[in-house]
């Protein structure tokens, strides 16, 4: 049924695209399409690198004809609307803008397209005329071998990196031509700041599992992923720890897991379950003292702020086999926090960090200090200048 639905969707995309191609020949000289830069994340949000880049662009370079692609139903619509021009995601104007844009910018590969899968270069994207400069601002810092980011699976003119080891790994393994990779830093890092006063919050933010992407509710509830994390949320030992030190824990599952967020239930008043609609990831990162994660690259954001973390990796072998192959980053050698495999170890390490005034151990602090290429607030500026240099 899913495949049949996608076939009908693809037929609709193709029909609209052909109509947009014809119309664009007539209106391409209009001011609203002249030298247009379109910026987007996934078309449904504005809380990542593209949002911060668009904020910089409209503030510092109003001479650029720019527009942000976002759905009218997005919880982030209003805050982008206050910055500049909006093009509704999936609208006919979106198709025309996609075809005529001089520059396309996104945190996700093909995130500026009316549909990420349809317009991917491995599907129908290779048949669509492309005169734009396609900019991949990235969703995070790459640490693993992510096949869909390899050059033969993309159509990218600029690929942003933020650390020298990341840049060297992508350059050696991803197959991009010289000049595509740019060591410029993630735009959202311009807004990252460590609070002076403690917040007494632990942020629990694990990533997703590819094996559960299209699964049923029953399969999800039966999964080790759900059972491990829901068990931790309801752990008496966790409840005692939070009560003892006056902390609360905020559980914010990955976007791909948000559809099952109501499956996570707890009676612990100090444990909060945060959903996508009402929470901003960067605010959660800033407004917490300790990060508990597994393999999510969000720990790089935490490391950028020099804050402590724990990696709860109960399934490393299956994760590597099913999702991402291991890259240059070795958690034991390079990680910014201790690796644990059991619930008891999670509690023990959290208590160690709290007892240390929520400061990272010296070994992890040294790794954080040596990892990042930049430690400033000029990432948006560097990315803008790099894009201009392509033109």
Describe the structure.
The protein has helices at 2-27, 49-60, 77-81, 92-100, 164-173, 217-222, 224-233, 236-245, 281-286, 298-304, 316-322, 331-334, 343-355, 362-371, 379-390, and strands at 37-40, 66-70, 86-88, 103-106, 133-136, 144-145, 158-161, 181-183, 201-204, 248-251, 271-273, 290-293, 309-312, 325-326, 338-340. The protein has 391 residues and is α/β, with parallel strands linked by helices. It folds into two domains: 2-185 and 377-390, Rossmann fold, CATH 3.40.50.11820; 201-371, 3-Layer(aba) Sandwich (Rossmann fold), CATH 3.40.50. It has a seven-stranded parallel beta sheet, with helices on both faces. A six-stranded parallel beta sheet has the order 11-10-9-12-13-15, with helices on both faces. A two-stranded antiparallel sheet has the order 6-14. The longest helix is centred in the N-terminal third of the chain and has 26 residues, at 2-27. It starts with a helix and ends with a helix. The mean pLDDT is 93.
